[in-house]
From TrEMBL:
Gene3D superfamilies: CBS-domain (3.10.580.10), Clc chloride channel (1.10.3080.10). Keywords: CBS domain, Chloride, Chloride channel, Ion channel, Ion transport, Membrane, Repeat, Transmembrane, Transmembrane helix, Transport, Voltage-gated channel. The chain crosses the membrane at residues 67-96, 116-138, 232-255, 267-286, 319-340, 360-380, 450-468, 474-493, 505-532, 538-556. PANTHER family: CHLORIDE CHANNEL PROTEIN CLC FAMILY MEMBER, H(+)_CL(-) EXCHANGE TRANSPORTER 7. GO terms for cellular component: chloride channel complex. This is Chloride channel protein. InterPro entries: CBS_dom, CBS_dom_sf, Cl-channel/antiporter, Cl-channel_core, Cl_channel_pln, ClC.
């Protein structure tokens, strides 16, 4: 019996391995992803509208209270699983990054005791190996794992599906690619990829796993609409931020402010619960690692920079330099967005079209340059004497190299000296930020070292952003902002000559200002900065610099994620319509369109011909009334037509209406659900004989009989608001109606409420039982 289990396990492993893409498949996938990322070709809208066809209504009629309770309980169970899964993924990524970095710095510092050149070679080889592993995973396994993934996820939650962003291979590529790129010392972070990781985990749970790799469960396949999957992905995004920053409240606000376009109170509860679960998982993992079981993992593993012992008060005179920090953050953030937009656009047009080999060479060159700068520049910096231990008893100087803390001894002639540039350059990003935020460390850094680091790291961050590796921009933005913030803090200390001014406080404000000037977040970023620094007293100052930096940045361009989404061809619908839409009508907006429609009884050959000649995803269906007039009876989706053509069970010989009662025996609602992890069926994959093409198909049982309709003279601004707020994919524009059969007011919608909370939540998602 044991041998049978072993044999079955081996066969399953072989099957999963056979499903892994080879290099040719990966190149084809990369070409498809690149083609769909340029100009929006192949980007598809999501169906957030409930298609109330006959199969849907039949299935709803069979569902009772037991199913409703199961549906709601499964939502909360999935919120729990998303939190646990995202938390464990964050723990794994941080453990791997910290241990790889620890091994790298331990080996390098042990070798440079004998030869700096040999240590330099080891440092370069270590970084190159990690970076090559990351770019190889992206180019040959998961092309959609490149970048932060936040623009694509934001597009998904806005109603736009970009192929490949939520696949199982993308999840694996994001996790292991982030380990290589961040551990390899590139000027990028792992926080953006963690948001994408949480979204992938949520999407895979929502569809019951990955069917391609035979890692699925049938009892989990209950969320069959894009609306339900959207809510799960929202939970995943919040979980990613909560795991990256250990900021559960910030994660909820990030999902609300930055990525999602639709929000409900029930969704707020589940998102908050998911973020709380992540916080518990991360806290438990850190407590377990404090016993020394996690290798080099230490306090630098997760972002938490406690500056509660820093500046406790501030004077009115300090508001001016703090406002200046906000202006600098807005200017540098807007410049960063514009430079990355130009370089990424050039990279996509000329460089990445040459194939994966060029992408690998590009990343390797950037890794070499980054390693040379981070190792070489501190060699030219003169070391400084350590502070007097009697005056500053809490300071350990020099700190052992490669460990968490300030005052790193690097290329110094005296044991009681430290290299201020190596303290922030030749270090992990988390430890470098902790050093910049540190309090009670007056004159630790010289202005020359901070300015050198600012220029070089800013340039590296601009060049690295957009390469074929998983890359986040939170931590590099914090490093850039904290550097010029500390510079301003040094001038404030020198100018005002006050002992209670902390340079670390100004570093924190600088970090907030750059992120606000680049990403244009306010509320969520403010809460995240408070949570990661554990200092509530600085909240008014953070709010001040965020408001100023966002206002300055908005004067020049859009936020980082909006710019990148536009570059990738993701058509985001903003919260407000454009000014010109108020003077345009719906008829004017669609006047150049040629409406392609089907009759209720249509020949199979005509369906195939129209689907091959058009790329539309929805078609009106018309029928003839008793007086011979043409009536619009509904909307049929392209995906539903492809399902009907592939199954062939609904073909009929006569051009007359079919018996609707027999539909439930041949189809259920799940047959028409679009798979998330595949491209679906295309018309080229369906093969029909000549006899089958001459048959007929009655579309009435499968169409949506109640699509949204607007009159032709409605302003385009009202159509825009209706389209975005309801998450629609199609709206019919029709002539003005000839008569009114009723008028619905508020009291008509206040139907008798049921005390059952499960049913109330279900009704809020438009999945209520049929009356």
């Amino acid at each position: 019996m044991l041998s049978n289990h072993i044999q079955n396990g081996i066969e399953t492993a072989r099957l999963v391995w056979s499903r892994l893409p080879n290099s040719e498949e990966a190149e084809a996938e990369e070409e498809l992803f690149a083609r769909r990322s340029n100009g929006g070709a192949g980007v598809e809208s999501l169906d957030y509208e409930v298609i109330e066809n006959y199969a849907y209504r039949e299935e709803q009629a069979l569902r009772g209270k037991l199913w409703l309770w199961y549906y709601v309980c499964l939502k909360w169970l999935f919120a729990l699983l998303i939190g646990i899964g995202t938390g464990l993924a964050a723990v794994f990524i941080n453990l791997a990054v910290e241990n790889f970095s620890g091994w790298k710095y331990a080996a390098t510092f042990s070798i440079i005791q004998h030869s700096y050149f040999a240590g330099f070679l080891v440092y370069i080889i270590f970084n190159l190996g990690l970076v090559i592993s990351s770019v190889f995973i992206v180019t040959h396994f998961a092309p959609a794992a490149a970048g932060s993934g936040i623009p694509e996820i934001k597009g998904y939650l806005n109603g736009v599906d970009t192929h490949g962003i939520l696949l199982f291979r993308t999840l694996i590529g994001k996790i292991f690619g982030s380990i290589g790129s961040v551990g390899g010392g590139l000027a990028l972070g792992k926080e953006g990829p963690l948001v994408h990781t949480g979204a992938c985990i949520a999407s895979l749970l929502g569809q019951g796993g990955s069917t391609k790799y035979h890692l699925s469960s049938r009892w989990l396949r209950i969320f069959e609409s894009d609306r339900d999957r959207r809510d799960l992905v929202t939970c995943g995004c919040a979980a990613g931020v909560a795991a990256a920053f250990r900021a559960p409240v910030g994660g909820v606000l990030f999902a609300l402010e930055e990525v999602t376009s639709w929000w409900r109170s029930q969704l707020m509860w589940r998102v908050f619960f998911t973020s709380a679960v992540v916080a518990v998982v991360v806290r438990s993992a850190m407590s377990w690692c404090k016993s020394g079981k996690c290798g080099h993992f230490g306090s630098g593993g997760f972002i938490i920079w406690d500056i509660s012992g820093g500046q406790e008060d501030y004077s009115f005179q300090e508001l001016l330099p703090m406002a200046i920090i906000g202006v600098i953050g807005g200017l540098l953030g807007a410049l960063f967005n514009q430079l990355t937009l130009y370089i990424t656009n050039w990279r996509r047009k000329y460089l990445h079209k040459k194939g994966n080999r060029v992408k690998i060479i590009e990343v390797c060159l950037i890794s070499l340059i980054t390693s040379v700068i981070s190792f070489g520049l501190p060699l030219f910096r003169k070391c400084s004497p350590c502070p007097n231990s009697e005056v500053n008893p809490g300071i350990e100087c020099p700190r052992p190299p490669g460990t968490d803390g300030n005052f790193v001894n690097f290329y110094c002639s005296d044991d009681k000296e430290y290299n201020d540039l190596a303290t922030i350059f030749f270090n992990t990003q988390d430890d470098a930020i902790r050093n910049l935020f540190s309090a009670k460390t007056f004159h630790e850094y010289s202005a020359q070292s901070l300015l050198t680091f600012l220029v070089m790291f800013y340039s590296l961050a601009v060049v690295t952003f957009g390469t074929a590796v998983p890359a986040g921009q939170f931590v590099p933005g914090i490093m850039i902002g904290s550097t010029y913030g500390r510079l301003v803090g040094m001038f404030v200390v020198k100018f005002y000559k006050k002992l209670n001014v902390e340079e670390g406080t100004y570093a924190l404000l600088g970090a907030a200002s750059f992120l606000g000037g680049s990403m244009r977040m306010t509320v969520s970023l403010c809460v995240i900065m408070v949570e990661i620094t554990n200092n509530l007293k600085l909240l008014p100052l953070i709010m001040l610099v965020l408001l100023i930096s966002k206002a300055v940045g908005d004067f020049f361009n859009n936020g980082l994620y909006e710019e990148q989404a536009q570059l990738r061809g993701i058509p985001l619908l903003e919260s407000r319509s454009k000014q010109y839409m108020r003077t345009m009508t719906a008829k004017e907006a669609c006047k150049n369109q040629k409406v392609v429609y089907f009759s209720r009884i249509v020949k199979v050959a005509d369906i195939v011909s129209i689907l091959r000649s058009n790329k539309h995803n929805g078609f009106p269906v018309v029928d003839h009334g008793q007086n011979g007039e043409t009536l619009v009876i509904g909307l049929i989706l392209r995906s539903h037509l492809l399902v009907l053509l592939q199954s062939k069970v609904d073909f009929q010989n006569s051009p007359f209406p079919c018996d609707i009662r027999g539909i439930s025996n041949r189809h259920n609602f799940s047959d028409f659900v679009k798979p998330v992890s595949s491209k679906g069926v295309s018309i080229e994959e369906i093969h029909l004989t000549e006899e089958e093409l001459e048959l007929y198909l009655d579309l009435a049982p499968f169409l949506n009989p109640s699509p949204y309709i607007v009159p032709e003279d409605m302003s385009l601004a009202k159509v825009y608001n209706l389209f975005r707020q309801l998450g629609l994919r199609h709206i019919f524009v029709v002539p003005r109606a000839s008569r009114v059969i009723g008028l619905i007011t508020r009291k008509d919608l206040l139907i008798e409420e049921n005390d059952d909370s499960a049913i109330m939540e279900l009704q809020s998602t438009s999945i209520a039982t049929a009356r």
